[in-house]
C-alpha cells in the first residue's frame, strides 16, 4: 500500500506513451527488426505524431483555397492556365489543382487515420476491460490528494462511535451510488472506506468520437464511388428524360452503372421569379425562384406536379433534383432565301450579369450557302451607354432586344469534336456583321425579322406571346440531379462523432474516496478525498456536494444522534 | 417606423456602443497598468471558509482561487469596475443596434458581413460579461473590448450595406442556426485566444522573475490557471465549431446538392477545426502543454479572423454573401 494515489491503475484509460496522463514507458530499447517495427508503430501512434499530422493537414489544405480546384471551379483552372502559362504546369505537376485528391494530401490524412486507428484499438481493448473492473484501493494518505475534506464527530460511548462509523460508511456508499459512482468497499485494520469512480463515459465518448471519424471517412469514400451528379437545362414547355444522353453533363462515381438510371421524366411547365422594384436599394435583385415541374415517375405513370426551389430540392425515385440557375431562352427562327425554315430553337442564353444581359450562340451547319454561326446578346431591358454600347438596366422583359453578330465559314463540328452549345469557335470563320466587319449588328425586338447578309435568308426573334406564352421570351431552368446514398451515413457518423466529442470533453472523470476511522475511541473521523482524471474544473464542488449529501443522509437517518 | 429610419437608429446605437467600448478599453487599460504596479494580490483580507484538514499546509487549501470569487467578494478596483460598467452599457446599445437592424430588415441580423460582425461582436461581449459573473476575468477586458471596438468600428466603416431583401440561397432555417452557432463559437475562441495571450505573457514573467512573488503582482493569475481556463473556452468553442461544420454541410446539401465541395469557406472552416483539434491534442501531449499549445490557440483564432475577413473579401467561392460588390 505504498502506491501514490496518482499512479495508474486498471481503470485508467490507456494512453499513448507521450500523453500527459501516461506513465513514461520503461521498456528497454529493443534490437532487431521487431524492435524497430515496434518503435516505429509507437512513434506513429504517439500523441506527437498525431499533433504533427493535424498541423500538417491544416497547412496542406490551405493552398486549395488559393488555387482554383478542378472539382469546384474547372473554369477557374482553365483561366489560371491562360493567365499564368509559366507556373500553371508546374503547379499542376504538384497536383495543386486537384489538391484534395492529390497523392500527398491523401498521404497525410491516411497516415493520420492510421495513427488514429493504431492509437484507438488498444485503448478500446483496455477500456472494455476497465469497464468491468472495480474502483482501485483507497490510498492510505488521503490528505495528499487534490481535494480533501474532513468531518469529525465525538461521541460519549465508544460503542456509539463504532456504530456511527459503520452508519457513516454505509451512508457514503449509498450517496456515491446514487450519484452514479461505481463503488467498492475496502477495509483495513483501523478504517473502513468506500472507493468510488465515475465518468467512464468520458473515455467511451473519446473512443466513439475517434471511431466515428473513421466512419465519416469510410462513408465519404464509399459514398462518392456510388454517387452521381448530372446537370440539365430545360426550357419552359420542354421535357427531360433521365437517361445519360439527355444530360448536359454527367459525372458518375467509380461504381455507378449509368445504364441503370431510373427512367423518369420532368417537364418544366413554368419558371417563376420576382425582381425587386426599380428605385429600391436592391433594385433588380432576383428572388423567389420556383421551377414548376410535371413529374412522371415512370414512362407510363400518371404525371404529378412538383416545385423545385432554392434550398428545397425534390425527390424523384431516390434522385434529388436541385434548382441551380435560370435564364432566358429566346426562340429564334432562321429561314433560307426561299423562305423554308432551316432552324427554329428555343436557345438558352447564359446570363452574364445581375441584370440578365445574356449570351448565346446559334449554329446552322446546313441549309445556307456556308456554315453560319450567330453570336447573340439578349438585353431584357435594353438601354445604351454613353459609348453607344448596349446594356441591360433591369432583369425583367421590359424592353427586350436581341443583337446578333453573324459569322460564316467552318463551325468546327464536322470532324466530330465535341463543342459547347454556348460558345462559338470563330477561328475558322469570317465575321459578316458587327465588330470590325463594317456592317451593323442585326438588332431585333420580339416578333421582328431581319435579313441575313448576302441575301442568304432571314432571322426572326419570335414573340412567344403570339403562341400563348405569358411573356415574349421563354425562360429556362438549370437543374442538377444528384444521387448520394452515402450522405446519410456521413451525417450519421458526424452526429455520432459530435455526441462522442461532447461526452469526451465535458463529462468529468473522477475518483472519490470516503474513509471512516476512529481517531480516539469516541471520535469518528470521516475523510472525503477526490482525484481528477483529466480536466475537471468542478472537482472541489463535487466533493463538497458529496460531503453535504452524506451529512444530510446521516441526519435524516438518525435525527437525534450525533453532535459535532 | 420604416426601414431606413430604423436602420439609421441602429447605426446610431452601434456608434454609441463603439464610443462606450473605447471608454471601457481606456478604463480597463488604466486598471491593467495599476495592477502591474501593485505587488500583492488584493485578496488577502478574505477568509477562506472551507473546512481544511489532513497534513497539507493549511495555506494551500485556504487560499481561495482569486478567479472564482463571486462578484461581491472581488477586489473593488475602481478602474476595472468602471471598465465593466462602460462595457455593460455599451452592450445595451450594441444589442439595441443589432436588434433594431434585424427589425429593420425583418429577418435575423446576420445575413451579410456587416451584420455578421454586428452579431458576432455582440456575442463576444455578452459571453465575456456572462463569464465575468463566474470568473474574475477583468484583466481580459482590455483585450476583449479593444478588439470588439476595432472590429465593430472597422466593420461599420468598411462593410456597412443598406438593408436589402435576402438572396434566395439564404432563405433557410440553417441561416438562423449555422451562422448563429458559428458566431457563438467565434466569441468563445476570442476569449480563449485572449487567455492564451495572457498566459504567454504570464509564463514569460514567471520564467524571468527572480523572486516568486514578483511573478504574480496582482495582475494576472498563474500561467497554469490561465491555460486551464483558455482550454475550457476552446473546447466549448470547438464543440460549437463542429456543429457549425455539420450544420453547414447539411445546408450545402440542401442548397448546392452536395454536402462538401472544398469551397474556399469550407476549406477554412475545416482548417480551423483541425487547428483546434491540434490544440486539444497539444494540451494532452507531454512537452506541448503550456506555451506551445497556447500558440496553437492563438493561431486558431487568427485563422478564424482570416476566414471572416480575407477569405470573405478576396477569395473566390460560393459563400459570396458579404453584400459588398
Write the layout of secondary structure elements.
The complex is a heterodimer of chains A (564) and B (325).
Chain A: H1 32-44, H2 47-61, H3 63-66, H4 74-83, H5 88-93, H6 103-132, E1 147-154, H7 158-178, E2 182-187, E3 191-198, H8 200-225, E4 228-235, E5 239-241, E6 249-252, E7 265-275, E8 286-296, E9 304-309, E10 314-316, E11 319-329, E12 331-336, E13 341-346, E14 350-351, E15 358-364, E16 371-379, E17 382-384, E18 390-392, E19 401-409, E20 429-431, E21 442-444, E22 449-451, E23 457-461, E24 474-483, H9 486-506, E25 510-520, E26 523-532, H10 539-557
Antiparallel strand pairs in A: 1-26, 2-3, 3-25, 4-6, 4-24, 5-7, 7-8, 8-9, 10-11, 11-24, 12-13, 12-23, 14-15, 15-16, 16-19, 17-18, 19-20, 19-21, 22-23, 25-26
Chain B: H1 3-37, H2 58-62, H3 78-105, H4 113-134, H5 141-158, H6 173-208, H7 212-215, H8 223-255, H9 264-283, H10 291-314
Order of helices and strands of chain B: HHHHHHHHHH
| Low-confidence spans of chain A | 1-5, 559-564
- Give the percentage of residues in beta strands of chain B: under 5%
User: Which bin fits the share of residues in helices of chain B?
Assistant: 55-70%
Q: Largest chain interface and its two residue counts?
A: A-B, 70 and 65 residues
Structural class of chain A: alpha+beta
Oligomer: heterodimer
Output mean pLDDT of chain A.
89
What global shape of chain B is seen?
Answer: globular
What distance lies between the first and last C-alpha atoms of chain A, to the nearest angstrom?
31 Å
Compute the average pLDDT of chain B: 85
Number of structural domains of chain B: 2
Molecular shape of chain A: elongated
Largest β-sheet summary of chain B: none
The residue ranges of chain B in which pLDDT falls below 50 over 5 or more consecutive positions are: 39-63
> Tally of extended strands of chain B?
0
Number of strands of chain A: 26
The major sheet of chain A is characterized as: 6 strands, antiparallel
Strand content range of chain A: 25-35%
Terminal Cα span of chain B: 28 Å
